[in-house]
């Protein structure tokens, strides 16, 4: 069996998000049957959510946890003026390669979501953070810093779109993980699965994400990537957003939005700090 890579340090501690996504960047497409068509679907759903709130191309969008570009690139391809930032340098580098190979204009740079205001210029019409990114922030203090930075990047009345798993339900059932899914034809298959370990109070979970690649000789290369998430409740996230300058936070469940995770869509409060003051 393959290389058996792990991102956890010796002693079993889960890796932080930077190490986790640095290690996962080259394997990220194995999480999908075909990454780019899946990414285009992500972009189409998020663009509908934005358009329903009068944010349409060529509006400016900040993807403040862009990873390898799963949402940022298709939104840019649809005509939005997109800036993507991420803590993982290797993920940003891969996003750049994916954009260049498709001729997609997008601005990408490395930045911690908690400090994103210092890393980008200008004020945006919308910001997004998708696919379980915010739950990497394990404390209220870090979550508040991130939301404050995101608010500072938005014009008054701007839109924020974030997605997280349905932790309200998952904390009750505490599933052991996500089953392995394999894609492709025999001899060139790939796939991924997850193992989850919950804390006693169900406030956090450590995950091991396994990715698989079938080799021409019939053997399998397997990589294991470990990290920790906060099982962030919807009410907690709503309160932090309200406290840090957002209003009218609306939750869209998958049956409403068509997205695979619950979405929260708050509006940057017009009565909070002005754009000019935020830029200073």
In short:
The protein is of the alpha/beta class and 280 residues long.
How is the CATH topology of the largest domain named?
A: Rossmann fold
**What is the number of independent domains?**
2
How many whole angstroms does the radius of gyration measure?
Answer: 19 Å
CATH class of the largest domain: Alpha Beta
The share of residues in helices is 25-40%
Q: Which blocks of ≥5 consecutive residues have pLDDT under 50? A: 1-12, 274-280
Helix and strand element order? EHHEHEHEEHEHEEEEHEHEH
Based on helices, strands and strand pairing, what is the structural class?
A: alpha/beta
- Number of helices in the DSSP assignment: 9
Quick one: how many beta strands? Answer: 12
Outline type: globular
Structural notes for this entry:
The protein has two domains: 5-15 and 169-230, Single Sheet (N-terminal domain of TfIIb), CATH 2.20.25; 34-164 and 232-271, Vaccinia Virus protein VP39 (Rossmann fold), CATH 3.40.50. The chain is 30% helix and 30% strand. The chain has helices at 17-24, 35-51, 72-77, 89-102, 140-152, 167-173, 234-243, 254-257, 275-279, and strands spanning 5-6, 60-63, 81-86, 107-110, 124-129, 154-163, 177-183, 190-198, 204-214, 220-230, 246-252, 263-268. Strand 5 (124-129), helix 5 (140-152) and strand 6 (154-163) form a beta-alpha-beta unit. Helix 5 (140-152) packs across helix 7 (234-243). The N and C termini lie far apart (54 Å). Mean pLDDT is 92; it is low at 1-12 and 274-280.
């Amino acid at each position: 069996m393959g290389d058996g890579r792990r991102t956890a340090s010796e002693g079993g501690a889960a890796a932080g998000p930077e190490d986790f996504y640095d290690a996962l960047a080259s394997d990220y497409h194995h999480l999908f049957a075909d990454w780019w068509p899946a990414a285009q679907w992500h972009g189409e759903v998020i663009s509908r959510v934005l358009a329903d709130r009068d944010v349409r191309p060529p509006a400016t969008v900040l993807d403040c946890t862009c990873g390898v570009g799963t949402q940022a690139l298709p939104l840019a391809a649809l005509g939005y003026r997109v800036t993507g930032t991420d803590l993982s340098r290797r993920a940003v580098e891969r996003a750049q390669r994916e954009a260049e190979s498709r001729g997609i204009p997008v601005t990408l740079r490395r930045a911690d979501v908690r400090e994103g205001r210092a890393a980008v210029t200008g004020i945006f019409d919308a910001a997004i953070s998708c696919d379980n990114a915010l739950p990497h922030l394990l404390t209220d203090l870090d979550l508040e810093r991130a939301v404050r930075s995101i608010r500072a990047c938005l014009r008054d009345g701007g839109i924020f779109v974030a997605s997280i798993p349905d932790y309200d339900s998952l904390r009750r059932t505490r599933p052991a993980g996500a089953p392995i899914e394999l894609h492709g034809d025999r001899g060139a298959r790939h796939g991924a699965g997850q193992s989850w370990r919950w804390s006693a109070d169900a406030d956090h979970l450590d995950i091991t994400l396994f990715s698989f690649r079938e080799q021409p000789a019939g053997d399998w290369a397997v990589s294991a990537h470990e990290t920790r998430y906060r099982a962030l409740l919807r009410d907690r996230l709503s309160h932090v957003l309200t406290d840090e300058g957002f209003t009218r936070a609306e939750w869209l469940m998958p049956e409403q939005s068509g997205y695979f995770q619950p979405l929260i869509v708050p509006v940057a409060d017009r009565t909070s700090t002005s754009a000019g003051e935020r830029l200073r």
